Amino acid sequence: MRRYIAVRLASLIPILFGVSILVFAMQALVPGDIVDIMMGGDQAFGDKNAEARMRRQLNLDRPVPERYVLWLGGMLRGDLGTSFVSGKPVLGEILRRLPVNLELATLAIAMALCLGIPIGTLSAVRRDTWTDAGIRFGSVLGYSVPNFWVATLTVLAGSLLWPGMPILQYVPFTENPVRNLTLVLIPSFVLSLTVLPLIVRMTRASVLENLRLDYVRTARSKGLPERRVVYRHVLANSLIAVLNVTGVQIGVLIGGLVLTEEIFILPGIGRLLLESIQKRDFPVITGATLFLATVFVTMNLVVDLLHAALDPRVRR
Amino acid sequence: MPPSTPVSVAEPAAAVTVPGVEVPATSRPERHLWRQLWRRKTAVLGLFLAAVVLGGAVLAPWLAPEDALAMSPRRFAAPSASAWLGTDQFGRDLLSRLLYGARVSMVVAFAAVGVAMLIGGTIGLCAGYFGGRVDLVLMRGVDVLMAFPTLLLALAVVATFGGSTRNLVLAVSLAYIPIFSRVVRGSALSVKQNDFVEASRALGARDARIMFRAVLPNVLAPIIVQATFNLSTAIMIEAALSFLGLGVQPPAPSWGGMLSEARSFMELDPWLALAPGGAITLAVLGFNLFGDGLRDVLDPRLGGQG
Asked: Taking the CB of residue A25, how many other CB atoms lie within 10 A of it?
């Protein structure tokens, strides 16, 4: 197991290296001159000296490969650059907003698992009944409905049906935990709908697959009640596949977070990214993109390692 | 790996290779396939929905009762005989805007999936067929693209290059290249083991010929299934980017953009938020249901119980 962890951790390095090149290339490929973009609204616009000073500050007077090395060096030291707009370090801005994302994502995944696993199991146990057909159609419909539409309609329903609904506000958990949870509950539930249908589908498929295996026949023939066979043996074995699909869905969840934060006006990294795109604040855009990609890759690794810990066959 | 037989042998061999090679591809006649598909009610429903959206997109100039950009003093009109779905905040006909919005959606989805299929498919085919170092280098590149959540990668591309139809295609196709590479590589790896590949190599066919005449026809099924599912998610990504104001720029109609504009007026006129979202849902649902049916028929191994 230790060897497996080491190999997997090492495989992260070339991927993150490639990610950094890609993100840097995007920044370097921005059409137009970044100094012009930055100084567009400034009084100093057109001032050649100020422009030259800024170019030197941003290392723009150096060749691209050297700029990359300098930039990467900064990243490795935890320096994601400085925002053009606020003048603050990008990493600080990101970390300040991280708790919002963590809370939303954790709640959403927890809700999706708590709902998805029982629903998927029910669908499998009642195979080829109306219940099963309804759940299956519901899950196809579920991942065909755009989540940002559901979120928009939730906001609409809230303002029409319940004018005082605690929505479109945010209070940090540390300030008022109860109020924070009531505010975050609805957005988290909407976000959980992005991953729920696939968890239902995967649970159903996996439970059905396991029900066909020999150990189920053994369990039944030694007289175990069906409930115990399903919940104790089949479900436990099916959860590994569910874990895997949850890992794959982390990417969907990160994308969903950007939209959820935008619609429910929550101050997370997704909104930071969108705001900086609007203001063309490139250090924040690249910093946030790099950060989210790193989180995504790391989470996938964690899921893989969990999978290996639970299922010795994976380790080889 | 390439056979060292002289070129002159490869040419006459070609005539012999072709029938031998094409057997696996044509052993499932198309008519049989359609009949199987036709028996699946949800797949037929999916095909119908997809056809309606595609038809609406193609025929928009003839079907649309009004110009999608024409403003009128009749603002926020309720659905009526003259404007079936009512009008928006500028008095523009909602149905016409939905039809023209379907165009953007379909153009971006089909172009992006097409580009990703070509590039990603070629990468996957080369990686799977040649193996070894080629495989290692190509798939490392694919891994890097896979390191970005789909929407984030698309977001980064349009943030860098600006929102336009062309950049939307670029953004979505870049996000899909790794998916096609992986699917095709996996299938190519297993197809490569077959005797008919070995046979055409023994007959002196060159690598390119084996790849495109022997391997490619046999990996088409998973490519088509994957493409159908990706059409549905491409519609969703395009809508999401336009919703965020990073896709097609107003006043040009796009479903995501219409939904986003409606947010300011939806308490006054909920219909404005319901219609574009409903259109996205039906289009995505259509391609998903059709894709499910196609997968069951073309490639039962991919997940029959799903």
From this structure: 12
Task: State the pTM of this model.
Answer: 0.86
Q: How many CA atoms lie within 13 A of B103 on its CB side?
A: 17
What spatial distance separates the first Cα and last Cα of chain B, rounded to whole Å?
A: 39
Q: Which residues of B touch A297 (CB under 8 A)?
A: 147
Q: Touching check for A14 and chain B: CB below 8 Å?
A: yes
Contacts of A104 (CB under 8 A, 6+ apart): A184, A187, A188, A191, A257, A260, A261, A266, A268
Between A130-142 and A196-211, two packed helices, what is the crossing angle to 10 degrees? 140
Is A100 touching B (CB cutoff 8 A)?
A: no
What is the Cα–Cα distance from A251 to B233, expressed in whole angstroms? 14
Cα B263 from Cα A253, distance rounded (Å): 23
Task: State how far the Cα of B34 lies from the Cα of B43, in Å rounded to an integer.
Answer: 11
Alpha-carbon radius of gyration of chain B? 23
Q: Give the number of other Cβ atoms within 10 Å of residue A263's Cβ.
A: 23
Q: Is A211 on the interface with B (CB under 8 A)?
A: no
Query: pLDDT tens digit string along A251-279?
Result: 889 999 999 999 988 999 999 999 998 88
pLDDT tens-digit map of B89-135:
776 878 888 899 999 999 999 999 999 999 999 999 999 989 889 99
Q: Token pair for residue A288?
A: 């946030």
Query: What is the distance between the alpha carbons of residues B272 and B262, in angstroms, rounded to a whole number?
Result: 6
